[in-house]
User: What shape does this take?
Amino acid sequence: MRPLTKSEKRLALVLGLLLFAVANLIVWNYLAGLRSDLVTEQARQSSAQMEHRTWLGQRDLWMQRMAWLETNQPPATSPSALLESVQQAAQKHSIEVKDPKLVSPNPQPLYMEIAVGLSAIGSIENIAAWIAEVQQPTLFRLLKQLVIKPADDKGNLRADVIVAQWCKPEGTVDTKPKP
Assistant: This one.
C-alpha cells in the first residue's frame, strides 16, 4: 500500500473532524434531552414536596374535619328512604312529584352515595324552597343534576333532578386516620 499524499491526509483529517463533530452533536442532543427530562422531573418533585408540606402543616385541621364527619355524617340508608324523605319535602312545599326512580348506590372508600331521580312540578318559589330544604348541609345531600323547563301555561316549572346523599359506608369499622 502506498503512503497517503498530502491532500489525501488533509481530506482524511477533515473527514475525521467531521465525523467527530457529528458524533458530538448526537451525544450533545441526547444529553440535552436527558437534562430537560431531569429538570422537569425535579420541578414535579419539588411541587409535590411543597404540596405535601402544606398538607402536613394543615394536618390538625383535616383531623378535626375527619372527626366532624365521623360524628355528623348520617348512617347508610336505602335509596327508598331517601326518596320518601324527598317526596315528603316536596309535598310540604305543594310540589307534584312524577317519575320517581331509584339510582344504584355508589360505594366509595369514605362514603356511600345513594341517589334518587324524580321530576318536580310547581311554582318557581315552591321549587326553590324545596331545593333549599332538600340540600340542607346537615343532611349531606346535593343535587347532582338539575334541569328546569316550563311545565305548563300557568307559570309552573318542571325540575328534573337527581338528589344524592353521602352516608357513612356500610361496614365501616374506623375511618379515622392514625396520628
Remarks:
- The chain has a mean pLDDT of 90.
- The chain has two domains: 1-57, 74-167.
